[in-house]
Specification:
Number of domains: 4
Low-confidence stretches: 318-323
CATH class of the largest domain: Alpha Beta
CATH superfamily of the largest domain: Nucleotide cyclase, GGDEF domain
Strand order of the largest sheet: 2-1-3-4-5
CATH architecture of the largest domain: 2-Layer Sandwich
Radius of gyration: 35 Å
CATH topology of the largest domain: Alpha-Beta Plaits
Length: about 550
């Protein structure tokens, strides 16, 4: 819904224009009225204005001055100037001040309606799909480094996808690596921060190490540096062209020599010690997460003084690697599902029981697959502990213990041994989550019902006043567009349509039970103009107010 403000120092002109434009069936406006530039500014502060229809010559603040203010407050507002003076200089000034049209009052309703339609179409063009996509592309370009880093971090953490999807994402994000070729891994660790101890300097240190590395690689290898945690980072390295086995060996030697130079340069120029662990061979993108986990352990338990280590990965025998690979992926599958539990808070808050069921179902499935794993039981208890801690924190923060009922016992959420099995323990937590989601969903529905009731009460109590969408939104602390959308989704009727229905029903009662004149009844139901009231009443009931009143004598 668009908001239009009509400004003229002649009240009758404002009323007439409002009536004319409200009768346009193909336009849906919230109408604001003002009789001076000062009043217009006061109302403009309460919410945005999409179209300003203003007289030019007004006492106090002129329409030109109001347009200048409007442009500063709402830069995208379309402005239509009205004047009774056929002055070309005025028209020129109007265009220079951003007015999209200039209409003489003597041109009649058709010219004004055409100008408003033109303004509406202009707004639609501005917010159409192509404009949105264009702005999105610009924003995407600015955010590309962050999106690229987050995507690669997901790959490192084991998110799986097909080669075709990965290749497309590499191209979209400008990742200068081959999606179908194996990758060489390096894990680095900043052993001390030196003069970069301040949090604001730590990112600077990371990029400094990265820049030094790129200088020494000098185009022979492509590398992407990825922060892993506070003091560790990962390099993803490939030759600039796809390689065979012999070239891979050469790439490993080139990287090994370069890393040694990078380590020395960091000590000399940055005054910080950096440790590195180099993979002994290339690995596929699918196996990258497992290799990184193994390399992290080796770097953590490296020999020597623990600073400025330069290590090469030690690989296990093939049979042990094969056995541990299956076990690793089963374990990691559970951890991936636990990572996705950050969605649980959203599902609980929104009362989305299906989302909760799906998340817990995936965890239970992963636990069952681990039943033959030596460490499976311990991992299941780890999963229970994480989920229990999350739910207990959620319950405490929102003070929901009382809502869970007397049957809820705190020891059951803290102690997995209160249950028959680890699967049963996790399913018990799933039941608590579903209870919380159900409770939140009911409370959300109650709050919505209460809010609509509050709006209805206000409309009935202050029907004779100007019931703008902005005022009603302020009443319930929502934005006007959201209130309009939410009200229609909940009730199936537009809020302004509801207000009109109430006004007509109140008018019917007054016409049948009082002797007030037609113009008095119009004012009593919030419609200042009697002619507009008459047209609106007839449009909805099929009868004029007078004919409707007379029907009581003949009925």
């Amino acid at each position: 819904m668009l908001t239009m403000m009509i400004v003229d120092d002649e009240p009758l002109a404002v009323h007439y224009l409002t009536e004319t434009l409200l009768e346009l069936e193909d336009m849906d406006f919230e109408m604001l009225k003002a009789h001076s530039g000062k009043e217009a500014i006061e109302k403009m502060e309460a919410g945005k204005v999409d179209i300003l229809l203003t007289d030019i010559r007004m006492p106090g603040m002129s329409g030109m001055e109001l347009a200048d203010y409007t442009r500063k407050r709402w830069p995208r507002c379309r402005i239509i100037f009205l004047t009774g003076f056929d002055d070309f200089a005025y028209a020129q000034t109007a265009i220079r001040n951003g007015g999209i049209d200039f209409v003489l009052k003597t041109e009649g309703d058709e010219a004004i309606v055409t100008a408003v339609q033109k303004a509406t179409q202009d707004i639609a063009l501005e917010i159409n799909r192509e404009e949105i996509l264009k702005r999105s592309r610009e924003q995407l370009h600015a955010a590309l480094p962050t999106i690229r880093r987050d995507y690669l971090r997901q790959l490192v953490q084991g998110e799986s996808e097909s080669l075709a999807v990965r290749a497309r994402r590499f191209e979209e994000l400008g990742i200068d690596l081959h999606a179908g070729s194996p990758v060489l891994l390096v894990i680095g660790r900043l052993d001390e921060w030196g003069s970069f101890a301040a949090p604001s300097d730590q990112s600077l240190l990371f990029y400094s190490v990265h820049n030094i590395a790129e200088e020494y690689l000098n185009g022979s290898l492509n590398m992407i540096a990825l922060p892993y945690d506070r003091n560790r980072f990962i390099w993803l390295v490939q030759p600039t062209e796809p390689t065979d086995d012999g070239q891979e060996e050469q790439a490993i030697r080139t990287l090994s020599g370069s890393v040694e130079l990078v380590q020395a340069a960091c000590r000399r120029h940055l005054k910080v010690p950096v440790s590195f662990l180099l993979a002994s061979s290339f690995c596929t993108w699918e196996a990258m997460m497992q290799r990184i986990e193994a390399m992290k352990l080796q770097l953590a338990y490296g020999i020597g003084k623990g600073h400025e280590m330069l290590l090469t990965e030690q690989r296990r025998e093939d049979k042990e690697e094969l056995r541990s690979s299956k076990q690793f992926y089963e374990e990691q599958d559970l951890r991936i599902h636990l990572h996705k539990m950050d969605l649980l808070e959203t599902y609980l808050d929104n009362g989305e029981k299906e989302g909760c069921e799906h998340l817990f179902g995936e965890v239970v499935k992963a636990i069952k697959l681990l039943s033959h794993n030596d460490a499976g039981e311990a991992l299941a208890y780890e999963a229970f502990s994480q989920l229990a801690a999350f739910l207990l924190t959620y319950i405490n923060k929102r003070h929901l213990i009382a809502q869970l009922g007397e049957s809820f016992r705190i020891e059951e959420i803290l102690n997995p041994f209160q249950h028959n099995s680890t699967v049963g323990a996790v399913q018990f937590l799933a039941g608590i989550a579903l209870s919380l989601a159900d409770y939140n969903g009911l409370k959300k529905a109650e709050r919505t019902t209460d809010m609509i009731g509050q709006i209805h009460h206000y409309v009935h109590a202050f029907l004779q006043e100007e019931l703008s969408l902005t005022r009603l939104a302020e009443l319930v602390y929502l934005s006007p567009p959201y209130l309009s959308r939410m009200y229609k989704q909940t009730t199936g009727q537009g809020l302004l349509d509801y207000i009109t229905d109430v006004r007509i029903q109140r008018a019917k009662t007054l016409l049948m039970t009082t002797e007030h004149k037609i113009h008095e009844i119009a004012a009593m139901v919030g419609l200042e103009s009697a002619p507009y009231f008459t047209r609106l009443f007839k449009k909805i009931t099929g009868l004029t107010p007078q004919v409707y009143r007379d029907s009581r004598l003949t009925g």
